[in-house]
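re the bet — no i am not wrong, look at it urself. input seq straight from the record:
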Amino acid sequence: MSTHIIEIPHKPRLVPFEPDQVFFEPGALHYPLGQELLARFKAKGTPIQMTTSHNQVRGIPGETEVEQYRNAKRTLVVGVRKTLKFDTSKPSAEYAIPLSTGCMGHCHYCYLQTTLGAKPYIRAYVNIDEILAQAGEYIAERTPQITRFEAACTSDPVGIEHITGNLKRCIEYIGQQKYGRLRFVTKFAHVEPLLDAQHNGHTRFRFSINADYVIKNFEPATSTFLERIEAAGKVARAGYPLGFIIAPLYRFDGWQDGYRDLLERLAHMLPDDAKQNVTFELIQHRYTKTAKAVIEKRYPKTKLEMNEENRQYKWGRYGRGKYVYKKEAAAELEETLHHLLDLYFPTAKIEYFT
């Protein structure tokens, strides 16, 4: 087993997100959390505007589309989740539970680039009790089967947890449900508000990790690898089941050594007891033609390789598809990652490769 560990240069610690401006939907003020957030941002002196709907948000500054996009990423919209029908979330869970939408990170490859289209601002939902009650109905419908909920399909809820507290409420609600389980993934290390939550082992707390090359080049405005692993240690000591998503698996020059180094450092830094029940999810890089056009417009200097000649088209739901690695390249990624995980995490569960 190799003992060579690449040193990562120290970077200033990422501070928790605070929006540059906040929009409130009128309905949000009918809920206690909406009133709390209004008082919070008034006390901070954050610019506040009212909007009839998040679709009517106007006045985000910027002379170019790129500037407006970046400023939108610094904007929070506080509103009500009107649609309480949850989307499915295969393969990680039965349902996606909507606590928030959008993310303050700037990951070049992120599917939210196109999912959120021209509305990349962050939305926080204040009708959390209604959302959790709907989750309870889904659990009741499937009892005695376990119903899993994914809380990070359209956002990184940890990124605004210090503002809303919604994720802790959700964790503690699911912790009381015999047949309910919660999952979410984050690239942020600001986990302190969640460490004392009464989760009862019903929430799997996952971190998105990657080779240093990917984090350095494609994941601006997120916590560093070292910060994420430090946070994972805190989460493990708080008794949460722990998991990691390695995504996107990306073939760069030297990718085999890069992913070996990643898992070697992870195994070295995690507490021993955290390794016993750990899970991994493996997702290869993919993109659509629409996403490619958006990414190249918003991040014109990106090094992200999106050459259709090196990819194959994989059909998905609703007659739409995306470009993934060709079969031989994907198989090599899968075989390499399985080998490395067997080497460094022999008791881990690999939930899927896709």
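see?? Residues 18-80 form a domain with the Rossmann fold fold (CATH 3.40.50.12110). told u. also The chain has two domains: 18-80, 81-353. so pay up
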